[in-house]
Each structure stands twice: as structure tokens, then as C-alpha cells.
Amino acid sequence: MAKCAICEKGAHFGIAVSHSHRRSNKMWKSNVKAVRVKVNGGTRKMYVCTSCLKSGLVERA
């Protein structure tokens, strides 16, 4: 699973509990995109979460 290159946000694991209280393993995936980014005057492809893109921490190429 991909991780954000800026904030290192990745997948979260836990237990989903149904209405009848049966428990099963669950994975919540973060919204991570492959994006071309400006880095040190050049462009590079990185995995970045959408919250970092929205907040302006990363500049798209």
C-alpha cells in the first residue's frame, strides 16, 4: 500500500463490528495519489495524499 511522501499517511487497520457484534478485520485506505511534483527545480513523481495537495504543501508540475 502506498504512503504519502509528505506526511507518511498510510493504511489504518482495526476491527469492524457489525450490528450483530460479529467482528472482522478491516483496513481503511487513505486517499493517496501518484502525482508529478516540482522538487528542486525539476519534476518528480511521488505518492501524495489529497489533504497535502489541498493544503498547498506540494506544488504540482
From TrEMBL:
<dbReference type="GO" id="GO:0006412">
    <property type="term" value="P:translation"/>
</dbReference>
<dbReference type="InterPro" id="IPR050096">
    <property type="entry name" value="Bacterial_rp_bL28"/>
</dbReference>
<dbReference type="InterPro" id="IPR026569">
    <property type="entry name" value="Ribosomal_bL28"/>
</dbReference>
<protein>
    <recommendedName>
        <fullName>Large ribosomal subunit protein bL28</fullName>
    </recommendedName>
</protein>
<dbReference type="GO" id="GO:0005840">
    <property type="term" value="C:ribosome"/>
</dbReference>
<dbReference type="InterPro" id="IPR034704">
    <property type="entry name" value="Ribosomal_bL28/bL31-like_sf"/>
</dbReference>
<dbReference type="GO" id="GO:1990904">
    <property type="term" value="C:ribonucleoprotein complex"/>
</dbReference>
<keyword id="KW-0689">Ribosomal protein</keyword>
<keyword id="KW-0687">Ribonucleoprotein</keyword>
<comment type="similarity">
    <text>Belongs to the bacterial ribosomal protein bL28 family.</text>
</comment>
<dbReference type="GO" id="GO:0003735">
    <property type="term" value="F:structural constituent of ribosome"/>
</dbReference>
<dbReference type="Pfam" id="PF00830">
    <property type="entry name" value="Ribosomal_L28"/>
</dbReference>
<dbReference type="InterPro" id="IPR037147">
    <property type="entry name" value="Ribosomal_bL28_sf"/>
</dbReference>
<dbReference type="InterPro" id="IPR001383">
    <property type="entry name" value="Ribosomal_bL28_bact-type"/>
</dbReference>
